[in-house]
Every structure is written in structure tokens, then in C-alpha cells.
Amino acid sequence: MSRMLTLSDADSVSHAAAEDFVELAGEAVRDRGRFSVALAGGSTPRRLYQLLAEPPYREGVRWERVHFFWGDERAVPPDHPDSNYGMAAAVLLGNLRLSPKAIHRIRAEEPDREKVAHDYQNEIGRVLGADPNGPPPMFDLVLLGMGADGHTASLFPYTKALWERGRWVVSHFVPKLNADRFTLTPPILNRAREIRILVTGVDKAPILRAVLQGPRDPEALPVQLVQPEAGRLIWLVDKAAADELGGAERIA
């Protein structure tokens, strides 16, 4: 199931996402004893993480029952300014009293990229109780953003990772960035119970229209690959990003 919620501005998107996070965490802990979340990088989620580290949202989550993963990562050390883990650690994780065993980062600083991806798949399987050589497990929540080129996580247009159907985690070279990236793949993203895609800013308006109202072309618009098997996808967007959708909003 997919739907879109349009908020007045970027800060409203962040607050809505924070409220959602708290609610989903409570449900997961009550029903399954823990809450597993794959975090997104980028500027839009940063404000969400800041809010979660502050009252009243901070008090609404049983943080000792949360397991943190990442949907993608740059091939940089954790203290590098471009590190997705580093951003989350600075604005969220460092402000919470968490066990190191609950933080499952991608060891992106290690030189053997394939081994890093393989090890991360094993780590996901170990924590979530799944055979790393079998079908992917279910994250309770996957947070995603969308780039102005239609990418999500580190699934970029016209890259080989788009068509991975067996592995849950891959390392791949992104020619557009001239850089290596690690990313969760469509099979495990689409197994999630809940997926939220946060989109803000007028610069995203043309691509959001193409994604939601244009023809299906996931090779050019990788975010179109996000189609939950049985879970729920909600787009949280601000009015600026939704500006070109008009009155014919549609979720494919």
C-alpha cells in the first residue's frame, strides 16, 4: 500500500516523520520486543534525527530496544564529513544512551568493499534472525530520501545495483559521482513493514512529478523500484516538492 502526505514545509515533514517514528517504535516493541530501523543519509533526514534526540520525541521511544542500521553509506571513515553514520551519530545517536551492540554501521572505511558488503549482509541476518543466504528479513522501518536525479539510498540511475535480486547489500561504483557506494538493494528494501520517503524543496518538484505521474522507468528513476511486498509506503513531502503535481496526485 502506498500513499502520499503533503505537509506545509520541510520542518513539518520532519515533525510528521518524528511522530511516525515514535508511534512505529512503540508498536514494534510491543508486538516484537524490538524496533529495527534503517536510517537514511542526506540533509532532509538530519532535521528528523535532531528532533528525535530532543523532547518530546526522545521520551516517547524505548531506545534500549532499538537497533539502528543504514540504508546506504559512502566509502569513507565514520568520522568523515560525508559519512551517513557520522551524521546520525552526531545529531542523534550521540545524544542517546545506547549499547554499541544496537548500532550496526557499515564498515565503509575498510579497503575490501565486497567483504564489507558481505559482512553487513551477515550482520543484518544475525540481528534480525534470518539466513544471510536466504530471503531477506523485514526491517520494521526503512527511511529513505530522494535525490533530484530520482535516486534513493545509493541506487543511482543506470547502475548495476538496480537489478540485484539476490544480495541484500552491495558495493558498487557510481560513475556519476566517481565514487564507491554501499547500498541496501530492492529485495530487502521492499520487504520492510514500513517505508517512509522524505522529499522536500522545490528542486525536487520536477522529479517527483516524473516519479509519481510519469511513465515507469526505474532504470532512470530508481526510486520507482521501491514497491513494498506487503508493507506500507508513505511519501512525506512538503508543498514545495509537490508543487508540480497539481490536482492529479497519484501513487503508482
Given helix and strand content, the structural type is: alpha/beta
The number of strands is 9
Strands side by side in the biggest sheet: 1-9-8-5-2-3
CATH topology description: Rossmann fold
Low-confidence stretches: 248-252
Explain this structure to me?
- The protein has helices at residues 10-32, 43-52, 84-91, 113-128, 186-189, 205-213, and strands at residues 2-7, 35-39, 66-70, 72-74, 141-145, 169-174, 179-184, 194-199, 232-238.
- The protein has 252 residues and is of the alpha/beta class.
- The chain has one domain (2-238): Rossmann fold (3-Layer(aba) Sandwich), CATH 3.40.50.
- A six-stranded parallel β-sheet has the order 1-9-8-5-2-3, with helices on one face. Strands 4-7-6 form a three-stranded antiparallel β-sheet.
- Mean pLDDT is 95; it is low at 248-252.
